[in-house]
């Protein structure tokens, strides 16, 4: 069932599972750059519990833009730039080389020194160090991968960001459990934010990445909550009679757009989070829902069936007349705005299949990013290079990631239950 229908009818949400997400690369990409990430050296006294080089290599491989060399094919394993003979790596036809060394840090933890080398140019492109605790070694590895990715592509990496998602086990039974979870972008370090026998839906990140808004059906009433990830403290933001759904933080975090039906039909409202004052943005006999902000905070995109079928509209965040902007196909919904503000990812129906589409705002050819049959809930990576969305695989709810430019994708599954409703975090501050 498409997301708009589930919101509007308040029907049962089958929301998804537990355990670490497992990532499967689905397809390949021609022209992936060969790169070697050499196992990092360990100075005496350093016994890290994480293979930092392996995490970096896996991060780069998942983008489809890089093809890391298997460790078994490396003829030598240097750890410092002065130990590198570039001719040896030219023979292995690798473009770039990542080397590093981990040593004990004064006062505890580790110091990680690393370098990115241009093999054919015979020079260092990047050299840096960072300090890490044992607990944060994976995060440190992701940050190194981010720096390498940005140096080689010009775009910020997203390996140190996180994803929120909803899981369910025991669907349709008296033992069903629904959880809102947060994990690293590679599926590791999952944390349960909320666990409940009642439906949970529509997770949305605050701009600073420190809070999540979501809808919970506790006590058989939909309510919007905002919860701090570090402390678990949560506030009930909206619990009016009828529908309380689709929370979306404004880019500056001071306001929240939402769908409420307290005055009749579902409409889009904006709440000042400081004063809790509400302003009604749309007022129509049709169903208006799924608001999404433009990056500058000046425009809100939303789904409405005021034309007879769900389509995407936009309206000034300060109010005014709404303008329809989707015209291709008889069903377009759940639009998310790209970080650059120039495109949308949305759910469209094509030949009876619900797929994720990529539309340039203001015109341009539509590109379909997924194949269906029931794809929904698109969310952009904060650098705009990829979209994560909910999909189906062998009848189970899974997550999928696809690059906007094409190439290899990823499927994220769990051993038990289902997983849905993904939301990619902003860059963490």
UniProtKB/TrEMBL annotation:
Gene3D superfamilies: TolB, C-terminal domain, TolB, N-terminal domain. It comes from Thiorhodovibrio frisius. It holds the Pfam family TolB_N. Residues 1-19 form the signal peptide. This is Tol-Pal system protein TolB. Keywords: Cell cycle, Cell division, Periplasm, Signal. GO terms for cellular component: periplasmic space. It comes from the Bacteria.
